[in-house]
Description:
Layout: E1 20-28, E2 31-38, E3 41-42, E4 49-50, H1 85-93, E5 97-101, E6 106-113, E7 117-120, E8 130-134, E9 140-149, E10 154-159, E11 179-184, E12 192-207, E13 210-217, E14 229-231, E15 237-245, E16 255-259, H2 260-272, E17 279-280, E18 283-287, E19 295-300, H3 305-309, E20 316-320, E21 323-324, H4 328-336, E22 343-350, E23 353-360, E24 362-363
Amino acid sequence: MSDDKEMNTEPRRRKGVWSSIAYFAGVAALVVGVYVITGNGAEPESAPAAVAVAVEESTTTTVVAVEVEASSDVEVPSFVSGEEPIADAAEKILPSVVHIQTETGLGSGVVYDSSGLIITAAHVVEGQDTVQIRFSDGEQVEGTVVGAVPGVDIAVIQVDKDDLVPAVFNTSKPRVGQLAIAVGSPWGLESTVTAGIISAVDQTNCDFDKCFSQLQTDAAINPGNSGGALVDRNGEVIGINVSIRTESGANDGVGFAVPSDIVVAHAESIVNGTLLDTAYLGVRGEPAQGDRAGALIIEVTPGTAADDAGVEVDDVVIWFAGVEVFGINDLAAQVRTHRPGETVEMTLIRDGVEMTFDVTLGVFPDEASP
């Protein structure tokens, strides 16, 4: 895409329900500062709110062990791996999830490599050179921020330890409806596990006039979960939790995670010191108003990937790289999931006729915006 303004031409989808998006780096003690991004840009919705925590006293339970003489008539219950997939997944991932404390708040992270690399969300460590890391066994160490890519909300931290338990990152695309388990430190409550499903894949999530393709889940995610793991039933990381859409300022069942393939690609680029270029298509557009939803092209920049492929004004893009497109924001988000030089298939409608083009994406120019 060629101009920030093109993405303001399409209102947020389901705006009546998803009026705001909350980012959750700021959890300090019991005072929570949640930044809210509205359809018009990023503004704090309100001052940080104090959260009252009610503690219910529990009664003491006495457990009596009864010795039972074994016989062929007595069936002794036993735990079989697989009967509790959430428990199995949690047991596998918990040693790899860390608690992060900064000068401004709290967040979560995931061990990426046994040599001391930890992945988190970029907004968790924004403005920080060092952070405090607490592991699942209670050990605390200082971590150094290696680098961050705010454009995809991924950062890498280095700690001086070489005996960490790295998580397994599954870079395959998950299925809608599959089990999704969020692990992190919501409200500063570390080692917290919540479960739900993958509500959508390739979901367009827009903020600051930029759109991204992310995983959507209804697993409970709250402030402090940012940078933590979203895992499958095998305890493998399928995404890094970064944001929620909410009317209440807390979990409303619509959370978002950066998919693991994007996480790994950018984490490797940070570690290697070679940040990835953003792909560029070279069009401006708006939502199609005809019989078929899509991205109506209103401008093609000469000499760009779209121009070279033969895209024309008034074309309506309906598929991009195998993902259905319902508007210009969807197209922008999908372009961002690819790298310059990749050749992808794009399907559009021109004068009522469906056509398919191969497009070799270019490099995002400094003066443009996808």
